Amino acid sequence: MTMQLKDLGKAVLATEYAVRGPIVARAQELEKLGREVIYCNIGNPQSLGQRPITYVRQLLALCEYPELLTAAPGVFPSDVLDTARAILEGTRHGLGAYSESRGVRFIREAVARFIEARDGAAVDPDHIYLTDGASKGVQSILKLLIASPTDGIMIPIPQYPLYSATITLYEGRIVPYGLDEADHWRLNPALLEASLAKAQAEGTRVKAICVINPGNPTGAVLDAANIAMVLEFARKHGLSVLADEVYQENIYLPGDTFVSFAKVLHDRGIKDVSLFSFHSCSKGFQGECGVRGGYFDHRNVPADVAAQILKLQSVSLCANLAGQVATYAMVNPPRPGTPSHALFQKERGGILESMKQRAVILAEGLNRIEGITCNVIAGAMYAFPRVELPPGVNDEAWCMALLEATGICVVPGSGFGQAEGTAHFRTTILPPTDKIRAVVEKLGAFHREFAARV
Amino acid sequence: MTMQLKDLGKAVLATEYAVRGPIVARAQELEKLGREVIYCNIGNPQSLGQRPITYVRQLLALCEYPELLTAAPGVFPSDVLDTARAILEGTRHGLGAYSESRGVRFIREAVARFIEARDGAAVDPDHIYLTDGASKGVQSILKLLIASPTDGIMIPIPQYPLYSATITLYEGRIVPYGLDEADHWRLNPALLEASLAKAQAEGTRVKAICVINPGNPTGAVLDAANIAMVLEFARKHGLSVLADEVYQENIYLPGDTFVSFAKVLHDRGIKDVSLFSFHSCSKGFQGECGVRGGYFDHRNVPADVAAQILKLQSVSLCANLAGQVATYAMVNPPRPGTPSHALFQKERGGILESMKQRAVILAEGLNRIEGITCNVIAGAMYAFPRVELPPGVNDEAWCMALLEATGICVVPGSGFGQAEGTAHFRTTILPPTDKIRAVVEKLGAFHREFAARV
User: Fold this and answer.
1) Domain of B350?
2) Closest chain B residue to A55 measured between Cα atoms?
3) Distance (Å, rounded) from C-alpha A414 to C-alpha A425?
4) What's the confidence (pLDDT) of residue A22?
5) What is the CA radius of gyration of chain A?
6) Which of A107, A132, A184, A399 has its CA 20 to 30 A from that of A83?
7) Are B347 and A96 in contact (CB under 8 A)?
8) What is the pLDDT of residues A31-46, one digit of tens each?
9) How far is B13 from chain A (nearest CA, A)?
10) Cβ of B321 and A1 within 8 Å?
11) Residues A269 and A405 in one domain
C-alpha cells in the first residue's frame, strides 16, 4: 500500500500558505488558456520586469567562472574585477565547495561592517549566519524556539504567512497580536498586552514576538519609539524578538528612515532580550529572489544556545555560495569614485524612485474606489487595502472573482490574518507603472460592478 | 532575561551531526595555529583541489550575466551559448525571480528526460522537485512522513548522519537496520526483518525505509536483486522508500553499474510502494557542493499526498536558481559532436579515473595496516574501515589522537552508527593522489604507535 493522506501529520495538513495558494493556481491555469494575468500576489520584482543590478550580476558571473577575470577584457569595470578577486580569495575554494556552516567568514565580516555602519554598534561575525534567503533563517530560529506544543510565538495580524505556516508546521501555537489599522498599522502596547494575556490564560508559554519592519503586508515603517516599546514589552515578559527587516531599503516617505531593532537594543543598552534580525537579497532594490541569499544575526544569546544554532545550521551544510556572494554585493555596494559607482547609483535610484511612485499611484488610486480604503504605503512592496463586501461574500470569493474578471491576481486578507468582520487583500506595488495604473482602473471597475451585482 | 538552554526543545538538544562535530572544530583550531590539516571528514571535492567542470561554470556565468552572450566573443563555445539561451528562455525571467515552487519547468522536463534515458521509464515533470541540494529534499520528505513521536524511519547502520539528525529533530524514532560488513555492506533481508520486528515490538509505527546507494559511508553498490529485495520488503510491510542516489555517477568496479530504485520499481511493475529518489549536484564528478543543487522525484504517491508536498515546498518558495541551472547541466551534459564535448569528456574522465585510483590506493593501503580492515570501495567517495582498538579506547578518542598526531581529520564511526563492540572511522577518498598516499602512510604509522602505546 502506498502512502495515504491519513498517514500524514496534523501539522503538515494544517499548514497554509496563501501566497501560493488556490488563487495563484487558478491564475496559472488561466495563463495557460491564453489569458493575460497580472501577478500582484508575490514580491517577485524581476518576474514583473525589474532588471537586475549590473554590479551584482557581474560579480556573480566572475565568481562562477573566474577565467572571465582575464578572458574578457573591457567587459567588467576594474573595481568589480578587484572585488570578485577578493571574494574568491575570501572563499578560499571558490563557489564550488561547501563553506563553513555559518557561511564564508570573509562575507560575514563584510556583513558585520555593514551593520556597524548602519547602527553604530559592532556585531561579532560569528553571530552572523548566511542563509538561503531570509525564510530559511526564520524557520531555523522558530524551530529552535518551539520546544513543546504549548509554546507560542506572537505574530502580527496581518502577517506574512511564512510565520503562521512555519509555527503550525513545527507544532507551536500562533499567538496573534493586532496591528492598529487606524494608526498606520503601528504596534500598540495595549494590543500586545491583551494578546499575551489571552495566550497565557489559555496555557500558552509565549516564547517570542515576531515583528516585520517595514511591514509585510501593511507597508508600515516603525520609528525608534515604537521599536523601543516592543523591546521593553519583550524584556518585561522574557520574550525573544525576531525582527524581519528584509524591506529595510524600501522606505518611501520623506523624513522616514529605517531604524533597526539592533540599533535600538544597542542604544538603550538592553542586555536581557535575545534578538534575531533577518535580512535578504530578495527585496530592497536588488530584488534577487532567485539567488536565495540573506543572513540573520543574533544578540544577547548565551554561548550554549548559540552552539545549538551552529549545530542546527551544520545539518543543512551551508547556504548556497551564489547567494552568499549576492549578500556580499548587498552589504558592499560600489563606493563613490569607483568605475562601477555611477551605473549602480543610476540603477538603484531608478528602481527605488519608481517603487515610490507606484506606491503612491496604487494607494491613491485604491482610495478613490468606493468601498476600498488603503493606508499610505510607507515602506516594503505591498498594499493591504480594506474592502467593504456585501453580506455573505468573503475575501477569497472576491479575489477569485477579481481574477476571473480582470486577470489581476491578489491574495485574500484571510491568508495574512485580519480583524474579525473585516476583509482585505494584499497586492504588490511591483507591476510596471502603466500596469499599476491599469490594475487600479480595472480593480475599480470590477468592484463597482461586483458591489452592484451581489 | 535572554533565551536559556533549558528553554530549547529536547529534539534540538538531542540532534547530533558528527561530520561537522568537535573533531572538525579542533581541526579548524589547529589550522589557525599553523598546522597543516588534511580534511577527510566531508565529501567536499573542490575544497581539496578538484577543479570545476568548465561547461557547468560557463553556463552559470552566462545565465547570471546574460550580457556575456554577446559581450565576450570567443570566450564561450557556441553550444554553451545556445544552451544558456535555452535555459534563460526556460526560466522566463532569468535567475533573479522566484521560480515555481517545484522549480523551473523547463529544467524539470530535462530531469525527466534524464531519468527516462537512464531507467527506460517515464516520469511526470510535476513529480520532480528541484531542491537546494539533496539534503533539503530528504528533510522535506522526512517531515512529511513523521506524523507522531511513535513514527519510525528505518535507516542503515552505518548511515549518513543527515538521516539520524533530521529524524531526531523532527521527533520521530530512528529504526536502525544493520548493513552486513562481512557481505560488502549489502542489505540483508534477515537484518531488515529483525529491525522492523524489534521496532514494532517497541510500539513504533514504521513508516519508511531509507537506502543510500551507492553507500555513504560504506562505498557499497547495490545490484538489481538487492534493490528488488528492499522493494518487496517495503511492499510487504507497507513502507515508503527513500532512495538516496546522490553518488550514482561514482561507481568504480569494472562490471558494476548504477541501478536506480525507480528502474527496479518500474521493471517489476510495483504500484503499491511510494518511492522518493534523491539526486544532487554536489557529488558525482561535478562536485558542485557550493551551488546547492539537486532534485527529488516521487512515484506511487496519491494525488492528495502530492498536493501536500507541493504545499510544503511552497512555504520555502523555491530552490536557488543557480542550483537549478547546475542541475540542468548535470542532466544535460554536452553531446558528442558539440564544441564543448571534448573538454567535458576530458574533465569528467580525469576526475572519475582519479577517484577510482584513489579508492584503490586508500582501501589497499588501509588493509595493509595491522588492525585496520576495509571493504573494497565500490562506489561513492568514502571508506569506512574497521579499526581494532585497545580496551577502554573508543573511536572518538582514536580519531582525535589521529588528528593531533598527523593533522588527518576523519570522523568516528559512532557518528554514522556501527555494530556494538566495533570501531570504525569514515574518511573520504578526495585528497589528491599524493596526499591520499600520505594519509595511508601517516595513518599506518600513527596506528602502530597508538596500538603499542596504549
Assistant:
1) 5-50+344-453
2) B65
3) 8
4) 84
5) 22
6) A132
7) no
8) 989 999 999 998 899 9
9) 7
10) no
11) no
- Distance between A320 CA and the closest CA of chain B, angstroms: 5
Residue to substitute from B64, B69, B324, interface A, most A β-carbons within 10 A: B64
- Rounded to 5 degrees, what angle do the CA atoms B114, B291, B34 make? 135
Q: How confident is the model at residue B454 (pLDDT cuts 50, 70, 90)?
A: low
Contact B210, B249 (CB under 8 A): no
Q: From the list A72, A97, A287, which residue is nearest B44 (CB)? A: A97
Could you give the CA distance from residue A299 to residue A284 in angstroms, rounded to a whole number?
A: 24
**Helices vs. strands in chain B: H and E counts, helices first:** 16, 14
| Residues B304 and B362 grouped into a single domain | no
Q: Write the Ramachandran bin of B252: left for phi over 0, alpha for psi from -120 to 50, otherwise beta.
A: alpha
Which backbone phi and psi does B351 adopt, to 5 degrees?
-65, -50
A454 pLDDT band, cuts 50/70/90, is low
Residue written as grid cell 597543516? B36
Task: Say what percent of chain B tops pLDDT 70.
Answer: 99
Return the CATH number at A264: 3.40.640.10
pLDDT in tens, B199-228: 999 999 999 999 999 999 999 999 999 999
Asked if A94's CB is within 8 angstroms of B12's CB, the reply is no
- For B350, the grid coordinates are 580525469
Tell which of A99, A315, A318 to mutate to test the B interface (max B CBs under 10 Å). Answer: A315
The answer for residues whose C-beta is within 8 angstroms of residue B225's C-beta and 6 or more apart is none
Nearest CA in chain A to B316: A135
Tell me if A367 is assigned to some domain: yes
Quote ipTM for the complex: 0.94
Q: What is the number of domains present in chain B?
A: 2
Q: At what angle do helices A395-406 and A22-32 cross, to 10 degrees?
A: 10
What one-letter code names the amino acid at B288?
A: E
Does B20 contact A101 at a Cβ distance shorter than 8 Å? yes
